[in-house]
Automatic annotation (TrEMBL):
Keywords: Oxidoreductase. InterPro entries: NAD(P)-bd_dom_sf, Sc_DH/Rdtase_CS, SDR, SDR_fam. Pfam families: adh_short_C2 (PF13561). The keyword Isomerase does not apply. It comes from the Bacteria. One of its GO terms (molecular function) is oxidoreductase activity. Belongs to the short-chain dehydrogenases/reductases (SDR) family. GO terms for biological process: monocarboxylic acid metabolic process. This is Putative oxidoreductase. The keyword Oxidoreductase applies.
Length: 266
């Protein structure tokens, strides 16, 4: 018996999808047959990512959406280029270590604008159409940091905690309509940005495999996987939640964290 996910005829927007987890999600959704919109802040970065995606998934239908969705103007541009979607994956996010007592008000505001309000604005724009059509999927890429607030970046953790409440609230707004809204708690994941983050915390003199092990030992010892998660592993869960197979999963915080969060319930 095989499980097949067919998203043919569906249009998906993945914010912040020119690299890392977002790029892996667009590739996974495209392989499942969805028409996918690649989003980034600049036309050049979006074009590069779209070209790479077309090479990775031959025949993929790709829409290029260059816009900064953390701003009102950028959101308006997205809606102009892509008036309707069936699947919205709010992946855009920023992170970085800063001592707790040194995080300024401006930095707190920036994290909430990018990590929280960008997704709220797009959900508010796209959710009514999904509800009218009787089908849709909204996802927020959260983090294990939403539950286990990291001491080195509490502003990031708190912004991800907010996403759990946001997704639960919008799921209630969409109750009974055939639309599901969920958040995905991604664990420590291997991306270019995380490689830089690891270098900041353990130094840049170690070979990558050794640096990764040292980072997990020092800063993420709770991980049962004991390695960084690959972006494709996050994308697999997102694709499942975007599919008809996940029709009974809504209002949930689904973990792809490598066992990092020490809990026996989601």
């Amino acid at each position: 018996m095989t499980v097949q996910i067919d998203l043919a005829g569906r249009t998906a927007l993945v914010t912040g999808s020119t690299q890392g987890i977002g790029a892996a999600i667009t590739a996974a959704l495209a392989r499942a047959g969805a028409r996918v919109a690649v989003n980034g802040r600049t036309a050049a970065s979006v074009e590069r990512a779209a070209t790479a995606l077309r090479g990775e998934v031959p025949g993929a239908e790709v829409v290029e959406v260059d816009a900064d969705v953390s701003t009102d103007d950028g959101t308006a541009r997205v809606l102009d280029l892509l008036p309707s979607v069936d699947i919205l994956v709010n992946n855009l996010g920023v992170f970085g270590p800063t001592p707790a007592l040194e995080i300024t008000d401006d930095e707190w505001r920036r994290y909430f604008e990018v990590n929280v309000l960008a997704g709220v604005r797009l959900t508010r724009a796209y959710l009514p159409g999904m509800m009218e059509r009787g089908w849709g999927r909204v996802q927020y890429i959260a983090s294990d940091s939403a539950v286990a607030i990291p001491a080195e970046m509490i502003h990031y953790g708190v912004s991800k905690t907010a996403l759990l409440g946001v997704s639960r609230g919008f799921a209630k707004a969409a109750a009974g309509t055939g639309v599901t809204v969920n958040s995905v708690l991604a664990g420590p994941t291997h991306t270019g940005g995380v490689e830089d983050f690891v270098a900041e915390l353990v130094g840049d003199s170690l070979p990558w495999e050794e640096a990764q092990r040292e980072f997990m030992r020092q800063h993420r010892p709770q991980s049962l996987l004991q390695r960084l998660i690959e972006p494709e592993e996050i994308a697999n869960m997102v694709t499942y939640l975007a599919s008809p197979l996940a029709s009974a999963t809504t209002g949930a915080a689904v973990r792809v964290d490598g066992g990092y969060v020490d809990a026996i319930v989601p």
